[in-house]
Design goal:
It contains 16 helices and 4 strands. Strands 1-2 form a two-stranded antiparallel ribbon. The protein has a two-stranded antiparallel ribbon with strand order 3-4. The radius of gyration is 22 Å and the shape is globular.
């Protein structure tokens, strides 16, 4: 009788902690909504409280819910945490950069989100799926604030000022993640109606990606889908033919004619990346230990244009030197190896892991701080969480 009573009390405790972690997940979603649509929807709190401050109570909920288990979460996420902490130390202590400066302030919220996402990925079953659907919801909520702007010979879609991730490339990366998730989701679905629904939504998101005329996002998406295809082809040839027929039919209807025209013009357009990268590599080689500081990571290319790195790895190298760069590479490597091992072990969600990691890395290679976006943090966290859970079992 005493044992039954103890078990009942233990179950109540577990339910209470689970409810606290549920609240933390919903709080994390609210912060994403606040960051992306807070300004246009009038959700900005008094005093303009940033999302970084709002992450603190969500982090506290995770600590309360997990108790001593939070140490496992910190041990699991120690590499990116050490990366961000060393970067901030170098910027603030050695270079005298302002805490609110560009390429500095963003690291505070990133460190908090790393712990929150790792905790949710490890202790909230099906977190990746819920997060992906929420990401799609936020993407759809962005569209009323989108517009096509004249770029000369073609038009590009972007978001109005004040909306989070309003840059065309950031918007394309957001919807590209949705395309990747929905495409894989359609493959693993066995019910034809669910499969077609997922793919039709994926095509809709792909159409938005093409309207942004972002080359990096489209290339990253293509490579990630090719990698996903190696595993998904095991589901049979019929899904491949069905998806190919769907895309071919929409192409014949002229859905992607605007995209073909815009990408054809932009194919040989120089964005400045190939011009600025040699200059920034030279900066890094001149100061490889601590870099040159976050305020000095840009350079003027021969054409006279001021260009930022457009590469997360190069940003770490130039701004803070080899230590944060090595830790960031180790973070990527660990997530990639966890995704590969999950793929070999046939875990339930393994079909998603390697493609989303590859997509996150490729997007990070074409942008400055894209690895900090919520979908990228989740993409790199879920394979590691699955690996730790498997080892614990």
């Amino acid at each position: 009788m005493q044992a039954i009573k103890v078990a009942h009390i233990q179950q109540q405790t577990n339910d209470s902690l689970s409810g606290t972690l549920n609240l933390a997940e919903y709080g994390y979603y609210f912060i994403i909504l606040y960051t992306v649509l807070g300004a246009p929807l009038g959700l900005i709190l008094t005093g303009g409280i940033g999302s970084g401050f709002l992450l603190i109570p969500v982090l506290a909920l995770c600590f309360v819910a997990l108790g001593p288990s939070v140490l496992t979460v910190l041990q699991t996420a120690w590499i990116p945490l050490a990366c961000g902490a060393s970067y901030l130390f170098i910027q603030l202590a050695l270079h005298g950069e302002s805490l609110h400066g560009r390429y500095v302030y963003e690291f505070g919220p990133w460190l908090l989100s790393l712990v929150i996402v790792q905790a949710l990925a490890m202790h909230r079953p099906n977190f990746l799926h819920r997060f992906a659907w929420f990401t799609l919801f936020i993407g759809l909520a962005m569209l009323p604030f989108a517009s096509l702007n004249d770029g000369g010979e073609y038009e590009r879609m972007d978001l109005q000022s004040g909306v989070g991730y309003s840059n065309s490339n950031a918007m394309a990366a957001w919807f590209g993640f949705c395309v990747l998730f929905l495409t894989i989701k359609g493959y693993i679905e066995t019910r034809l109606s669910y499969r077609l629904t997922s793919w039709l939504m994926a095509v809709g998101c792909l159409y938005v990606v093409t309207l942004t005329v972002s080359r990096g996002a489209l290339l990253a998406l293509a490579v990630s889908l090719l990698i996903a295809g190696r595993r998904l082809l095991k589901a049979g040839l019929f899904p491949v033919l069905l998806l190919a027929g769907l895309l071919l039919g929409l192409t014949e209807l002229g859905v992607f004619d605007r995209a073909f025209h815009a990408y054809g013009i932009r194919a040989n357009e120089e964005s400045g990346r190939l011009l600025v990268w040699p200059l920034l590599i030279e900066k890094f080689l001149n100061s490889p230990v601590i870099g040159v500081g976050a305020s000095q990571v840009s350079a003027v290319v021969p054409s006279g244009k001021f260009v930022t790195p457009h590469n997360g790895f190069l940003l770490f190298a130039v701004a803070s030197g080899v230590m944060p760069l090595m830790l960031f590479c180790a973070y990527i490597f660990r997530s990639g190896m966890a995704a590969i091992h999950a793929n070999m072990s046939e875990q339930p969600d393994a079909a998603f892991y390697l493609p989303v990691v590859v997509y996150a890395v490729l997007i990070a290679s074409a942008g400055n701080m894209d690895f900090m976006t919520p979908w990228a943090v989740v993409s790199l966290a879920v394979p590691i969480a699955a690996s730790v859970s498997r080892m614990n079992r």
